[in-house]
Design brief:
The structure is a homotetramer.
Chain A (H helix, E strand, L loop, with lengths): L1 E7 L3 H12 L5 H7 L2 H13 L10 E10 H7 L6 E4 L16 H4 L2 H35 L4 H16 L8 E9 H11 L6 H17 L10 H4 L13 H18 L1
Antiparallel strand pairs in A: 1-2, 2-4, 3-4
Helix pairs in contact in A: 1-3, 6-7, 8-9
């Protein structure tokens, strides 16, 4: 799995501070933005969080490319609806030698890993067998309809793959581009950096947090799972009970990035 | 696959007509609603479509339960973001004898079907083997930490399943509850009733169209794929070129429901 | 101001409980829904709130007609974006004898009230004068272009009103139809039932809360301003400091409705 | 009225092209992005429009500061819900010498202008009179409760303004920061650059179109009102009938910007 920060709103913290300041000010925009030194920007962004004024952070958005994640991950991330996604289509991309994600718990257990890899290998074989069989059949049909051999084969392959992919496992990797504004990102971290989140989306959420904290530290200085962001766990009796460890983990994650500066 | 209409906004067409009428009227709401006979409601809903006034139809929403659809379907439907979803979790539901969707093109081809069913059987075996192996290991860990045998087994199973599901194929069935308002539904039909849409989501979209047309015929009388709804194909050179057949298909689909009345 | 509950999703609490149950269950939908007695529905809806599982409540939505509210209210309510609105247009509705909202603090102060009513009267006069002047001018233009006197007058009036309305005050009343699902409604209550919210939107939010609590008491039993819903104030140093009074107020509001049952 | 482009996603066209390309490609993100020359980016963005593939353009968003617009404009623009807004609050900003928008049709007509300006002047007077009267009263109350004179006056003024603003006219200016992605912007142009749109929002939409066309010409090359963007009017019998003139206007508007390059 690899996450790239592809692009983001220029000067995200200044834009957020400017938007928030304008709500309470009589000055025109040019004067407002000029007055926003780095220090004042920081102070303003912090005040917003303290008084629970959430909407101005929506003005800054971040775009990520995410590679080598499973179809399981895809199903989970796209449940976040206040975001934009462009996902590699399983309908168009031939997956001859398909790549897949291996859960760490399976990697660490040789016996389970053997079963897992065998399952992957056989799925790839079944996928290829079904694709080829259907493709041959459809090509013949299209040629009979008068298409050229080349054009028939291309059309047939697309159609064959559409059904063959039903045998592909959740583990199969995909790639996507995702855009979220800061408000959506903070919510993503609250839910998915949580100890109780599934490991893969947790890892991706941590990667994203590192990337955005690096370029907009004040906007994300209190970001993390709910227990970090809110100072309390909203899951009631389903809490993981590891408050101190989680706090420590995200404090260190941010300190490491601060130290690189 | 089976789609149930679980619930919807009471009197959907009257609510939409009332909301639209209020935009251009000076009357109070009670007077407006009383004046809305069935005939006037119909006429008003039709006028809205004719002048391209889309927002009032958002006031009516429909809730569906969808069973026996594949994980591929899930990935596609949840890309419609102006909707609400509750999806059966693969993390919590044990799938001992798992059910799966078989694409019609595969069912019709005995040789391909054999390969397909064999793949499904082996995936189920791999899933069970991995689940059991990891469960045993985790149970031992939890017991060593002092948990009771029963509680250790339950916790271990959940954790085991979370990783074992990576071997499950796209074909695996799931179930969900989905709510969309009329505006989102009309957009769904435009995209997914299209001849170029993947067969499974096309089938589900057709089922949904039948269900809502039955209870709100005027709201959905011009619904269907883009070529039916707009009278032209927006996909340019990628059109299927079967305009007449598609028109005829959706005309009949609605007539059959009308005839049952 | 008057708020009507126009329509809502049939059996809102059962739909929500059914959707939530389906996430963790292997049963099919019919079995699930049949098993949902009133008591089980209540218990399930409550559990959802306790574990912070918010999305299933989106499946139920409520549609309101809101009359006699000011343009100030309109500007505030439409900032809630996860909702649908149909608003009476100032562009099309002639406001000869226009109606307006009077803030209670102004009603209670005779001297201020006199200034206020005088301002309203003069705004109405200016609106009428501008409308008539422009209408006359435009009618002449349209007649010169060859339109019939009647058609010219109608077209001219519309155009005149579009500009004349710039003199209308915030106090002018409007009416609208609004639809929100339960998740949006709960958020509305958190923000707008707050002691620090502006009085008019606070009043409307309270009316809405009463209407939905009446038909879906379990879904809204912990609803109210943030301090009621979350048990703490998120506004930090800007808190109103009246925690006990606010709790008491919303407890009574609900008890009164319970007693009517 | 003045519109500033405050910030936007870095390399908006390349990000969109990269996201779209990734959907149909097997390459990793770095390879994809490197391969995107300016020419290929243009070609790819154009193809997206031609085949009606709308979602990738969501990855680029633009943030504007909009000054000197009326409260009427505010009411209209905020109906676009797939956007983020930070609006100057009438509750907190004292408007001693308030500024207002004058519709061009009123400016051009001396007699109407006189009535209009007189109405504005009297609204300002009423606003000040009500504010001062209530402020005095509240200050006395707060001082009686033990607050310092200064703190009482500040609190009293805020409370007074909240009600006094009910007399302010629609014409009063406000300022805001607004963020929209390209998909929302294109929709805004379709609705608001239309000949039938109200003049003020039409002017702002044109200004926004110029600003974004300047920095991302390929993304917005076919943008404009529906008749320009779609090549046909969706309003049926309510069409303005000036297809050729509108086409010409937006063609020139873009050419002028092209010529500045």
């Amino acid at each position: 799995m690899k996450v790239h920060l592809l692009a983001y709103t220029a000067m995200p913290e200044k834009v957020v501070a400017g938007a928030a300041k304008l709500c309470y000010s009589d000055s025109d925009v040019d004067t407002l933005m000029e007055g926003l030194t780095e220090e004042k920007t920081e102070r303003f962004v912090r005040t917003l969080s303290e008084v629970g004024h959430e909407s101005p952070v929506e003005h800054a958005s971040f775009t990520f490319a995410i590679e080598g994640v499973s179809r399981s991950f895809l199903a989970q991330i796209t449940r976040h609806r206040l975001a934009s996604y462009s996902v590699q289509s399983q309908r168009y991309v031939r997956l001859d030698n398909f790549e897949y994600v291996t859960p760490p718990a399976i990697s660490e257990d040789p016996e389970t890993l053997r079963v897992y890899e065998e399952a992957m290998r056989r799925d790839a074989e079944a996928y290829d067998a079904i694709t080829n069989h259907l493709k041959e059949k459809y090509t013949a049909e299209y040629v009979a309809q008068g298409l050229s051999a080349k054009s028939a084969a291309s059309k047939a392959e697309k159609r064959a793959i559409e059904d063959a992919r039903f045998v592909l496992p959740n583990a199969c990797t995909t790639q996507m581009v995702m855009t979220m504004n800061v408000r959506s990102l903070r919510h993503l971290f609250m839910i998915r950096c949580c100890n109780r989140a599934q490991w893969e989306i947790h890892q991706v959420a941590d990667e994203i947090l590192k990337l955005v904290y690096r370029v907009a530290p004040t906007l994300f200085e209190s970001s993390g799972p709910s227990c970090v962001a809110l100072g309390r766990c909203p899951e009631g009796k389903m809490t993981c009970g590891m408050f101190a460890e989680v706090q420590e983990y995200y404090k260190r994650l941010k300190e490491e990035i601060d130290n690189e500066r």
